[in-house]
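We now fix the convention by which a protein and its fold are recorded. The integers have meaning only within a learned vocabulary of local backbone shapes. A complete example follows; check for yourself that the lines match position by position.
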Amino acid sequence: MTDAPFTHQVADDPVELGFDTGAIADLIARAQREIDEGHVPSCQLAFARHGKLALWVTLGDAAPESRYVIFSSTKPVVASAVWILMGEGAIDVTRRVAEIIPEFAANGKDVITIEQVMLHTSGFPAAPFEPLEWDDREKRLARFASWRCNWEPGTRYEYHATSAHWVLAELIERSSGADFRDFVRNRVLEPLGLAGLQVGVPVGQQGDINDLVATGSHATPDELEAVLGIRELPVTEVTTEALLRFNQPAVRAVGVPGAGGVSTAADIALYYQALMHDPVGIWKPEVLLGATSTVRNSFPDYMGVPANRTRGLIVKGDDERAPVRGMGRTVSPRTFGHNGAGGQIAWGDPETGLSFCSLTNGIDEHELRQWRRGAAISNRAGNCLG
């Protein structure tokens, strides 16, 4: 195996990597304010550039270098395993899923392509799947067969919080012959030296994971209407109760492929360095470039914001709605990433070479405050280069 390209040694002087220490101090102060006001119990921040860490700090009630559940920031990690198989010719995303998983074809799903699954246009956004059923093959296939489409595949977009990535996990397994968690670890994370980033954490290795804590209360209908023009948010599977299930050791061990990854902020920041530079040649260059830059889904979400999705990531873009895609206002339009529930932030900007991650174990139920916090932190992070 090629020696891992990344170390977790933080640069002695971030200025040498082009950072503004005053701007970093402002970012840290803004994150600390959320802890001091009781909105989250802890957070962890990390920057990387030129393949090196410039910052890795933990604030609040958490041990240094401890880990967090990263929720949907898991999605690009699992998608990157599909990119490997695409480059090797083992997966052709224009093929129908049912050609590889025949059990999936029931109830009109036989027309769904792999690419539609990756773009969240496949039509089964809220398909149910209990995490602990994953390792029971009979139950897993029965779930796939039972799912129904809410619309004609490929004609609209709705975020598939977990369902699409259960399908991607099965596609990885059938195309590679390996457990999807093993494939992600052996082909992506170990070559990069990112041992803290795991999809599926054995129970005996969970001692450094910060438990999730719910705080605050939901925004009122009047608050929502004043900001968003709607009095209620769509009902989804992403509830506080569902998120807190990731405190359960058995659920963490499953490695829910769309939401169950665990990591330090440093490992995520370095992972995005790998997506920008691929230092050990994990992905075929044209496949990686397409995954990090080519928008293939611009359908609007429930707020009318174009999705700007690639085969696994979100690109910020330069339209008027770009700042609400989770990467803030201060990074370039080419910035790509994927945030997670609870306020997890993860992105890389190929224009500047900057990558950033912010993780927390606070589930702030006030949706507007959580979104504002994320915007404030991303905006400050993008300003941290000198």
Notes: The chain has twelve helices and eleven strands. The two ends are 37 Å apart (CA to CA).
